[in-house]
Write a structure and sequence with these properties.
heterodimer; A: alpha+beta; Alpha-Beta Plaits; 2 domains; 4-stranded antiparallel beta sheet; 10 helices; rod-shaped; B: alpha/beta; Rossmann fold; 7 helices; 32% helix; globular
Chain lengths: 301, 229
């Protein structure tokens, strides 16, 4: 194997159809970076979701004398309260159900709005309903079952399920992620077609050389290798661009998300490296396999 | 060296056979002219030897190998033992004389030291000494054909196939080309040359195989181009 001969051939091939090569590199770069962005999104969504889900609680607000809810007939009776407590604690999905009395709730309320004393002063302790704060074992799967079990039970004013609020947020994120992935996949198809075309053009440009190579008994491997590597090198250049873009996406876009969260949702450098390596794998595989398949069609023995 | 055993070749979508029941043997070191009008099957004959085509019927042995049993993977190794020269030279226009000849060795992975030693020898053999740096478009037709012959011979093939090598060259220059082919033949290389050039065939007095409509109509040991009476 004469490696410098092979590299010389690759260089000639890449230079001869420069425009196609540049187009190929750009399309590979964009498709890989979109694919990578999609993956980063998935990781980001998962990291926030895991955090949120461990925090999600269901609040069951109980009737007070002031409740306008028709389900309420005055303040909840101790029997009703006992009934709800039993229902909740007997459910296997429930990790814990804590009763928060009106006084406790009022204290919490005062704490939460301590920076707004005028607001606090308009609210009386009796305005804040008592509640059960329910922690779930597996919030994602079980919140519907638990919330519907107590919703509408005698003495229950309303059930506030944090999951439904989060769901809207996640649906938005999932939609954005799906859109990115779909566009990335379309571009991957475009990249495949471009690789095939570039290699075909390259093979056509060098049909004289390859004809002589066949004639003097060069092995198929030797004839095809420069073309194959041409595709792979273009893929790698595209990937390098994509890697730079992905680092940009993470540091400019995703890291800004952090400011909306009070805890750490940022992706680690490992996540980024993982995505970039995956993009390389996809890029090289895409270019290599497409080149190989194209060559089998255009450079027959 | 080359053995055709009742070989028939019919190209797809064609009623007439390009070669029909061709049965002949070319021995090691022989010089054979293949003559006949255009379309008589000369090129098909050469392509079958290279395994660029497969026979529709019959068996072909080249250099002791049964071509039907040769896997695609091994075909390049067969071709390394066969040199080829064409009417249109088929040189690489962007490489000089030395590079054109060296190309044939580079692509079969020969070491650089070997190439540097062997290529000048062969360029001398075909009579192009001192013209290593010339580009093909700076050479005459005869000189270009010499480069092509050097490229075909540089790997010391057992067989040299020449498809009308003098077809694009004037008669005076052709004599020089034939001298080179003769020189190559004298090194023990079997030469099969398809040609229309009666003067050359008549002057060389070598074995002549005449094809007509794909059939061997004449096979003479020391023949001439036209019918010998």
């Amino acid at each position: 194997m004469r490696s410098n001969f092979v590299f010389q051939e690759i260089w000639v091939g890449l230079r001869r159809n420069l425009t196609m090569t540049v187009a190929l590199i750009v399309v590979v770069a964009i498709s890989l970076s979109l694919l990578g962005t999609g993956l980063l999104f998935v990781k980001q969504v998962n990291s926030t979701r895991t955090y949120w889900q461990s925090k999600v609680e269901i609040s069951v607000y109980l009737c007070t004398a002031a409740s306008p809810n028709p389900n309420c007939h005055g303040t909840i009776t101790p029997a009703q309260q006992q009934q709800i407590q039993t229902t909740l604690t007997s459910m296997p999905q429930v990790e814990s159900a804590t009763y928060v009395s009106q006084t406790q709730a009022y204290q919490l309320f005062k704490q939460d709005f301590s920076n707004d004393p005028s607001y606090v002063s308009t609210v009386k302790a009796t305005d804040i309903p008592p509640s059960f704060e329910i922690k779930l074992r597996n919030p994602e799967a079980d919140y519907n079952i638990v919330s519907s079990a107590v919703n509408g039970a005698p003495g229950v004013d309303s059930v506030i399920d944090e999951m439904t609020i989060l769901d809207k947020f996640y649906r938005l994120l999932d939609g954005a992620r799906n859109a990115v992935v779909v566009v990335a996949l379309i571009l991957v198809v475009a990249a495949i077609l471009l690789v095939a075309n570039t290699i075909r053009l390259s093979a056509f440009n060098r049909r004289r050389e390859t004809g002589i190579m066949r004639l003097v008994g060069a092995s198929n491997f030797y004839i095809q290798l420069p073309f194959l590597l041409e595709g792979v090198i273009a893929g790698l250049l595209g990937w390098a661009l994509a890697a730079a873009l992905l680092i940009g996406v993470k540091s400019l876009l995703l890291n800004n998300l952090q400011q909306y969260f009070s805890y750490n949702v940022g992706l680690s450098a490992t996540d980024l490296v993982e995505v970039i390596l995956l993009a390389m794998f996809v890029g090289v595989l895409l270019c290599g396999v497409t080149s190989f398949v194209t060559l089998r069609r255009y450079l027959r023995v | 060296m080359i053995n055709f055993d009742n070989v028939t070749k019919i190209y797809p979508n064609q009623n007439r056979a390009a070669l029909e029941n061709v049965d002949l043997t070319v021995n090691k070191g022989e010089f054979v002219f293949l003559v006949g009008p255009s379309g008589s099957g000369k090129s098909t004959f050469l392509r079958l030897i290279l395994k660029e085509e497969r026979p529709s019927d019959g068996r072909i042995h080249v250099a002791g190998k049964d071509l039907a049993r040769l896997t695609n993977w091994k075909v390049p190794h067969l071709r390394r033992r066969i040199g080829c020269v064409f009417q249109d030279f088929r040189l690489l226009p962007n490489k000089n004389v030395y590079q054109n000849v060296a190309f044939a060795l580079e692509v079969i992975g020969k070491p650089r030291r070997f190439i540097r030693r062997v290529v000048p020898e062969v360029i001398d053999l075909v009579g192009l000494e001192g013209k290593h740096e010339r580009m093909p478009d700076e050479l005459s037709g005869g000189e270009q054909q010499r480069v092509a012959m050097a490229r075909a011979f540089v790997n010391r093939p057992m067989i040299l196939l020449a498809d009308e090598p003098t077809g694009n060259i004037d008669p005076a220059t052709s004599i020089g080309i034939m001298k080179v082919l003769d020189r190559i033949n004298r090194t023990g290389t079997t030469v099969v040359m398809a040609t229309h050039d009666a003067a050359i065939v008549d002057s060389m007095r070598k074995r002549v195989i005449e094809l007509e409509y794909g059939k061997v109509v004449r096979d003479q040991v020391r023949g001439v181009y036209g019918q010998a009476y």
